[in-house]
Write a structure and sequence with these properties.
Elements lengths: L17 E11 L3 H11 L3 E12 L8 E3 L2 H13 L7 E4 L5 H19 L7 E4 L4 E2 L2 E2 L3 H10 L9 E2 L3 H8 L29 H13 L5 E7 L7 E8 L8 E7 L8 H19 L20 H38 L16 H13 L8 H5 L8 E2 L3
Parallel strand pairs: 1-2, 1-4, 4-5, 5-8, 8-9
Antiparallel strand pairs: 2-3, 6-7, 9-10, 10-11, 11-12
């Protein structure tokens, strides 16, 4: 196997990387493995995917068909890879998981892959965990699965190396209310579920406190909170990351990005997929791929961490793609509105939209709006490969 710290002969800064991605799959649109796999492959990673669900489309359409993959089937698929000696992965990326049974199997797979890779002396195995549980104060998985995630992040060296929750998920896992003033406990107990991470109520000091809990209590090496809306910052989203020092203390940085007036699906998967490649790139440049969790020395400043540099690149790519997606959405909806007006009110609902059904026109518009906002990842792949750096990471000292 080649040295993972070397740049390849084509000048690709992302080292040779093999990823096992375990997440959802949709036939139409870009979420889950569909999004994350495309992003990683675009940046040169070899990706094998196990789908935890197979749906016709993502849930943003509020209707879908498909099936959830039972845990025994995931066990069987992984056994097939093992029996054929196809386990030479550098990274596990796990996203949406439908049940506690499936999560248990994913953690078993992670432990097995870590043991195999870390005993081969060809770079350290790395697990990126996106704990998909809810958003905007709403939980859309079972309480049993929430408990399963809390257990998974407490497994020490067998657990994830990088956790990428949103603000609401950070609250659930840490037990720290991002707005402060009670509503939970730092022992991971019950937390009053208010959308503090999403409605411009969060306090950056509380975000840092929550991350520190995951560092010290759970031993989590790296955390990046993907979207936090902070008090007094109506026009920006804060992305907050940290890598713990050897004593468990945090090194927090924050990157501010503008809020776009558009609802996108799959941005968390996009962030996680791009982060896999960009963190490998930055860790390779720092000579850290042979160290557990790609750990930097304690004297490295928060803003100089490979994690911070990778986060800036990822967000620069994403903002470019999402801005172009929003522009395309606006044009598409203008055309849709024009076509509807031309058809007249009587014929304004297509047969498949249940013509005559109460609220049918609004439903048709909602579906059209969701479709128009599908992330244009393929069309704008150049922005994934060659991002123009737009942001900077700043040390979070609050």
């Amino acid at each position: 196997m080649s040295d993972p710290n070397e740049v390849d002969q084509n000048g690709n800064p992302v080292p040779e990387t093999r990823v096992l991605a375990i997440a959802s799959h949709v036939v139409y649109g870009y979420v889950g493995n569909t999004m994350a796999t495309f992003c990683m492959q675009t940046l040169g990673c070899e990706v094998a995917a196990i789908n935890t669900v197979d749906f016709s489309n993502h849930t943003g359409y509020h209707q879908w068909t498909g099936t959830r993959t039972p845990a025994p089937q995931i066990t069987d698929l992984y056994a097939g890879l093992r029996n054929s000696n196809l386990l030479d992965y550098d990274v596990l990326l796990s996203g949406y998981i439908p049940s506690a049974d499936v999560l248990h199997e994913v953690t078993t797979i992670a432990r097995d892959l870590k043991f195999r890779r870390n005993t081969m002396n060809h770079g350290r195995f790395f697990w990126v965990l996106d704990p998909v549980m809810g958003d905007q104060g709403r939980l859309y998985v079972s309480e049993e699965l929430v408990k399963g995630y809390r257990d998974a992040i407490g497994q020490g060296s067998d657990g994830p190396d990088l956790l990428v929750p949103n603000g609401f998920e950070l609250e659930l896992l840490s037990g720290v209310h991002l707005a402060g003033g009670g509503g939970g406990s730092e022992d991971g107990g019950e937390l009053e579920r208010k959308p503090t991470g999403d409605n411009f109520e969060a306090d950056l000091g509380q975000v840092k406190k929550a991350i520190e809990v995951l560092h010290t209590r759970n031993g989590m090496p790296m955390v990046v909170v993907t979207s936090v809306r902070v008090q007094g910052k109506q026009d920006v989203l804060c992305v907050v990351g940290s890598e713990k020092k050897s004593d468990g203390s945090s090194r927090c940085f924050v990157v501010e990005v503008p809020v776009l007036d558009c609802y996108f699906s799959g941005t968390g998967d996009m962030f996680a997929g791009l982060m896999v490649a960009r963190l490998r790139e930055e860790a390779a440049a720092a000579g850290l791929l042979n160290k557990a969790s790609y750990a930097s020395e304690d004297d490295v400043l928060a803003t100089d961490l490979p994690l911070a540099k990778a986060t800036v690149k990822v967000l620069s790519s994403m903002s470019a793609v999402l801005e172009k997606t929003m522009q395309a959405r606006n044009k598409e909806m203008e055309m849709w509105e024009g076509e509807r007006k031309g058809m007249g009110q009587v014929a304004s609902v297509d047969p498949q939209d249940h013509k005559g059904e109460e609220g049918g026109e609004e439903r048709a518009k909602s579906l059209a709006r969701t479709k128009a906002a599908e992330v244009r990842a393929v069309r704008n792949a150049r922005d994934l490969i060659h991002p123009k750096i737009r942001y900077e990471a700043k040390e979070l000292q609050e």
